[in-house]
Amino acid sequence: MSDRSRLTGADPPPPSSPGLLECVPNVSEGRDPRVIHALAEAVRAGGADLLDVHSDVDHHRSVFTFLGPGAVVERSALELARAAIALVDLRRHHGAHPRVGAVDVVPFIPLRGSSMDDAVRAAHRMGATLAAECAVPVFFYGEAARRPERRELPALRRGGFEQLGERLGRAEGHPDAGLPRPHPTAGACIVGARRLLIAFNAVLNLADVAVARAIASAIRTSSGGLAGVQAIGVWLASRKLAQVSLNLLDHRLTSPRAAAERIAAEATRHGVAVREHELVGCAPASAFADWPADLAPITGLKPTQLLAPALLSSNS
Q1: Fold that domain 198-311 belongs to in CATH
Q2: 183 catalytic residue (yes or no)
Q3: What would the mean pLDDT of 67-76 be, rounded to a whole number?
């Protein structure tokens, strides 16, 4: 049995196997297939099992999902980060997704046999090594945050790469690891630990991004919408369509189905419809077990994106 089938299939690994971590780095490159291939090979060179690579030309971003024993996942995360810093130049990068770094965010997630403390320790070790080796300032977020105001990603991305130098120059903006100045081409990196989240998009059947932004505002938690939902409206220039891009921070509070139903209702209020949905990266298989036929389909969904119950921790 291959590593991939062992990790994503129905048969659980042996009870004596080490605890697993998942890592989902987001790299600011979604258009050059040679660079994306090189980054995927860097993950494999570290030894982790690469489950999925999701690249988007409009977001100009690639999401790599891999897992394995903790030490192996840390090694693969570092290999990926080193390669991205060598290959990605943010001075020439423009995309729909907010970013502060070539390796924008590196979250570690505990799976079967691992605790959140394991994920936090992995984040702190990887971030400290990255800052020391590559001269990239590092912020810690989520459960790995060392300051309460740095728990959430939007605050750390505010101003983007373009305003990063100014932010780092202020005392309150100093990084958690590394020097208080951006890497000239790679910016900064945000490293953290969190629970499983589901990155999920809804593509509308129109080109008006203002409608997508209005729908995003109506459904996200910060605007009084659904629990545990982050959402933005973006323009997909390559497709001339608008998209509602979501992070579901806890699918037990708001499932993909519940989010999709709310988006569909909001879209109807604006006289438009949802054309399709997409899953970015991986998610628990149970989160998509009840997808109804009356909702727009999830396009391009691969079996390897759905994590079997045997992989998950009790808190996933």
Answers
A1: Alpha-Beta Plaits (3.30.70)
A2: no
A3: 97
